[in-house]
Automatic annotation (TrEMBL):
It catalyses: S-ubiquitinyl-[E2 ubiquitin-conjugating enzyme]-L-cysteine + [acceptor protein]-L-lysine = [E2 ubiquitin-conjugating enzyme]-L-cysteine + N(6)-ubiquitinyl-[acceptor protein]-L-lysine. InterPro entries: 7-in-absentia-prot_TRAF-dom, SINA-like_animal, Sina-like_RING, TRAF-like, Znf_RING, Znf_RING/FYVE/PHD, Znf_SIAH. Residues 27-81 are annotated as: Disordered. Component of some E3 complex at least composed of sina, ebi and phyl. Interacts with eff. Residues 91-126 form the RING-type domain. It comes from Cloeon dipterum. This is E3 ubiquitin-protein ligase.
Amino acid sequence: MSVRRSDASRCLRLRAVRIARWRFSRESRSRRVSFPPRVGPGQKGWPMRKRASSPPRAEQQRKRNKMSSGGGGGGSSGGGDSSDLASLLECPVCFDYVLPPILQCQSGHLVCSNCRPKLNCCPTCRAPLGNIRNLAMEQVANTLKFTCKYNASGCALSLACGDKAEHEEQCPFRPYSCPCPGASCKWQGPLEQVMPHLLAAHKSITNLTGEDIVFLATDINLPGAVDWVMMQTCYGHNFMLILEKQEKFEGHPQFFAVVQIVGSPKEAKNFAYKLELNGNKRKLTYEAAPRSIHEGVAAAINHSDCLVFDPSIAKLFSDHGNLGINVTISQI
Ligand SMILES: [Zn+2]
Ligand SMILES: [Zn+2]
Ligand SMILES: [Zn+2]
Ligand SMILES: [Zn+2]
């Protein structure tokens, strides 16, 4: 802890020249919500794969929201018959719609494709789920319009089943999730509340002002999954810089660096960012458009649609285990 404090005071001094240093340990994935970052090379057993389980929970929450709007269904110009039919396609578990491919149990009960993998038997009759496809219901589904699942939050659109998922991903009424990586925080809310949430619940995240800053990640040699996070404020917007170290392929750790804007996908289009590793007579530059926190960075990291480098590259640019990344945000 005393080591940490001296780091912190050094940080304050460095901040004068717009350089920040801080770190998050691998442990921070599960604890970052209300704890200051903590590094413990000796600590083991952090729940690295937790992230996989969190998006479904968020989904669930959204579905509950949708469900509470419930009954009226319609709202579409399709008339009462269509929404009555659509209600026949409601999943008995999450109350979202069962959309093609539609599978039924041996008695003909339906369950949506999200809930299905989580069930051992039919939620209605307890019979085995089986793999019986219901083509007639699929054809019915293909002729109907379904209300957006954010109907309760204000979205009035009704969509063909093929367009529904894509729309909901982009729907302006979809609540924003906490943008901190690792998904340990379950907060959701409107865009205007994201920054107040970060400031209140994630006090350990450093916030720097300026379009051109240096992000100094310390202790990059720590084993296991680690992430470093920082906020950058410029052009009247807030950006979140994330550096993650993880093993997408076992035994092969990689670093992923990406910038997301605390804003909508539309706002994200107005900016570009540049990440630059610089030092020891070498330079590595990466430029891209920031992600919106509405999209999140998980997909970018999964698809390596960000700055990716391995530990040997990190070593070339680092100094005593500390890696400086120049971050420049520009307006398009
Ligand atoms: Zn369901
Ligand atoms: Zn059944
Ligand atoms: Zn919508
Ligand atoms: Zn949060």
